[in-house]
Structure formats: C-alpha cells, structure tokens
Amino acid sequence: MEAADFNFLLATDSYKITHYKQYPPGVSKVYSYFECRRKKGSPFNEVVFFGLQYLLKKYLTGPVVTEEKIQEAKLFYQMHFRQAVFDEEGWRKILEKHDGRLPIRIKAVPEGRIVPRGNVLFTVENTDPSFYWLTNYIETMLVQMWYPITVATVSREFKKILAKHLKATTGSLEGLDFRLHDFGYRGVSSQESAALGGAAHLVNFCSTDTVAGVLMAQRYYGCPMAGFSIPAAEHSTIISWGRNREKDAFERLLDQFSSGPVAVVSDSYNIFNACKHIWGDKLKERVMERSEDSCLVIRPDSGDPAETLIEVLRILEECFGCSLNSVGFKVLPSYLRIIQGDGIDLRSVNQILEKLSDKGWSAENVVFGCGSALLQKLNRDTLSCAFKCSYVETNGKGMDVYKQPVTDPSKRSKRGRLSLRRNSDGFLETVESGAGKPEEDLLVTVFENGCLMQNYSLEEIRKNARLQDDEPTPISHNQEPLNQRIINGVH
C-alpha cells in the first residue's frame, strides 16, 4: 500500500479508538516509552536499534489526516463496533489546527546504536494538550519496531560468532561483512517484512539475495547499493538437465559465469559423488583454471550441516589439496569455497565452526546463508519489546505513572520522563522520573509535529553498530547489574 492510500486512522488496534473517552478529565499530556525488557536466560543482552526512520518516513511524516480518511474511518468503526464511538471531532481538529499533521514528539536512540536491554529506546508525547490520546494511539504502529530491531540484533549476534571463529582460525577479520548471506526473502510473511528484515540485516553485513531490503536501504537510508550477491544455481536449473547430465549442468555454469564467483548447489543427488567425481575429477581442470576473484562456491543443501561440511572438505582436500594459513589452519585453494545455507541458526553456525576448527579447518573456507532463522523465526517476545505510559499531566500537574503487576515483577514499567545517559563507568543507563540532565541525554528528537527531524544514512548506522572492539558503547556480558541498571530519579 502506498503512503497516499494509507489511512493512518485505521492503523491501530481498534479498541484504542475508544481511549479518548477513558483518560481522566483534565488530562493534557501522555508520555510513553519503548524498551526491550531484560529477561533472565535470554541469549541476547543487547539490542541494535534500527527501523524507526522507515516507519516515520513511510507512515507518519506530513499531513496524514484528511477529511476523506476521517469519513472512511468513521464508517468503518461504526460498522466494526456497531455503535458510534469514533472521535470524529478530535480528528477533524487535527486536520483544521495542524493541517493533518500529527502533534507528536518522538525522541529516540540514534539508529544503529547498541543498547543493553532494559533501557529506554524511544519516547513519545503529544505536543498539543488537546490530543493527549494520540500518544498511545500510535503504539500499535510503533511497537512493530520489534521486527527490524530483532532482525538487526540477531544478525549482529551472527556477526559476533563469525568474527570469533574467523579471528581464531585466520588471525584477521578480512571479509567478515560477507560471511552471512540473507536467504530469507521467500520465507517471510510479506514484501514489507522482507524489506524491513532485509534492510536490518544490512546494518551488519553486505551479502544478500533479499532485493526488497536493498531497495529499502536505498530509498529510506540513502545507500545506493547496500548489499551484493553472485550468480547461483538452484535445484531447478540443475535437475532440469536430468540425473545423468549433472556434470553438463555444472559445466554450463562454469561456461556462463567464467569471471566472477559462481555458486552451484551440488546435492541434487549425491553431494559426495558430485564433489569427488564431477568437481574433483571430470571438471577438475576447469575448476583449477578459475581464480580467487572467480572462485567456485559449492553449496551443500541437506543432511547434518557439520558432518556434511567436514566430509565435503575432506573430499575436496583429497582432490585439490590445501595449504596452511598463517595460524596453522587448513585452507582450500583460493579458487574453491563452500556456502552452507541449510539448517543455519545461531546455535548451529557456532557448532559447525567449532567442529571445523577441531578438524583443523579455517573458517575462511565456508560462508553461510540464512533464511527463516534470520528473518522469520522470531517474534515480539524474542526481545520482550514493550511500550508503556510513564508520565501524565492532569489539570496542570505532572505525575509519574507505572505498572507493577504482583504476578510478574519483570513487567514493572519505568516511571516519569526518561533519558538515556552514559555513566562514569562508560555504560548506558536509563534515568527515570525526569532526573536526567538534558546535556547528557542520548535520546535525539527524530519526529515533531509531522516533520522528520533526523535523517540517518545507512553508513552512519553501520558505524554505530560496529562490533565491540570498535564500538562506542562498552558492553560487558558478565556485568549485567552494572551495564543494564536503571537509575530511578529519587536516588
């Protein structure tokens, strides 16, 4: 749906349109915030903040309220609730007083910033006292931030694992940005999911087949070309030759893509036979003619990933030989590499690389592809994303508010106006109850009264998200009480 056709008035949980009737009389300010709550036992201690700029540009910037959209929403909600509960007068006042622009202020962490869980990521408040109900009306849309944040966070965890093994078995991080290829386009729920998730992966890596993500990075984050790919076979292009002509199918790919890397799925029938008797025998000279810049990338696509890779590497070593790198691990000839895209998630990629190094193989022999585990096998609870009201003003008097359910202390919400600062130890922390100093606040006004106030480039975001040895925010996974503490204003 194009932004011009999008009706913002219908982009919320329907029960929220009745909330203007539920707030206390005299309320003039509602202030809320978004966080990824801390959760014991979670593998994720920190998050990558990404994706808000897209939502703001696509859906909230400019005049989003028109008379036509008011009438459409009025008719819809009349039918939906079977009674007149829609605030037609309130929305028309936004149209008349603010030219259809939303009187809202959003302050947020700069995109790409790495933030320990349990800290504020963005705040929302109304700028016109007449529209106090608007703050939480837009919760539904803004909480969908859980998706790009979670994908960017998962992708970065992959990067940490790959960096660890690459450094240990090669002595460097060369090529790290191309070690994880996004295979997830077909495995997500929609084109927009592919775009948001695909772009979130590109915060950390430059390797993808998810065109929608590259286009989003281009259109909303100012990057002419954020991700790259290479020619690659799929099973249909191999099996269409028939079982007896697998060698011909492989040779066709070598002919058609004689320069530049090419990936060939080689397990349509028997991956071990293909590696030993076709690549390692019948086409051996053709493979050896290729260079590092035009390498053959063999793709297994079934079986136990670690066991299959180890056997494939053994066969290729037997056929083509190998050498030892500067830190003593085995490396295939530069014209030959492997991509493993089946059965890949955070746990398996670590296990695979551990088993390969145990057998003496360098991580540089293999790159990985990841689909649903990167873009789809996650939800809002993966990082415990929540949007809560923490401050209100009624009859000119401010009050800190919060929830504190007796049955689940982890759902206790923050109180008052919030800021994010770096403490004297260098760790990020949230200051509650309006006690923070404005000059220390790391939250930046990104949206105000219908206007985008910041415009981050993907280049800036990637710098913010770089790994720990370079990043501006020191993170210690072993010091959770220190690096994730919340400072209450009363202290």
Automatic annotation (TrEMBL):
GO BP: circadian regulation of gene expression; NAD+ biosynthetic process
Annotated keywords: Biological rhythms, Cytokine, Cytoplasm, Glycosyltransferase, Nucleus, Pyridine nucleotide biosynthesis, Secreted, Transferase
Keyword Transcription carried by entry: no
InterPro entries recorded: Aldolase_TIM, DUF5598, N/Namide_PRibTrfase, Nicotinamide_PRibTrfase, Nicotinate_pribotase-like_C
Cellular compartment(s): Nucleus; Cytoplasm; Secreted
GO terms for cellular component: cytoplasm; extracellular space; nucleus
Biased composition regions of type Polar residues, renumbered to the chain: 475-491
Pathway, per record: Cofactor biosynthesis; NAD(+) biosynthesis; nicotinamide D-ribonucleotide from 5-phospho-alpha-D-ribose 1-diphosphate and nicotinamide: step 1/1
GO molecular function, one term: nicotinamide phosphoribosyltransferase activity
Principal subcellular localization: nucleus
Catalytic activity as recorded in UniProt: beta-nicotinamide D-ribonucleotide + diphosphate = 5-phospho-alpha-D-ribose 1-diphosphate + nicotinamide + H(+)
Domain Nicotinamide phosphoribosyltransferase N-terminal, residue spans: 7-106
Enzyme class per UniProt: transferase
Keyword set includes Magnesium: no
Superkingdom of origin: Eukaryota
UniProt-listed Enzyme Commission number(s): 2.4.2.12
Start and end residues of each Nicotinate/nicotinamide phosphoribosyltransferase domain: 178-423
Pfam families: NAMPT_N, NAPRTase
Chain spans, region Disordered: 469-491
NCBIfam families referenced in this protein's UniProt entry, alphabetically: PRK09198.1 (NF006629)
Subunit structure: Homodimer.
Family: Belongs to the NAPRTase family.
PANTHER family the record matches: NICOTINAMIDE PHOSPHORIBOSYLTRANSFERASE
Name under which the protein is recorded: Nicotinamide phosphoribosyltransferase
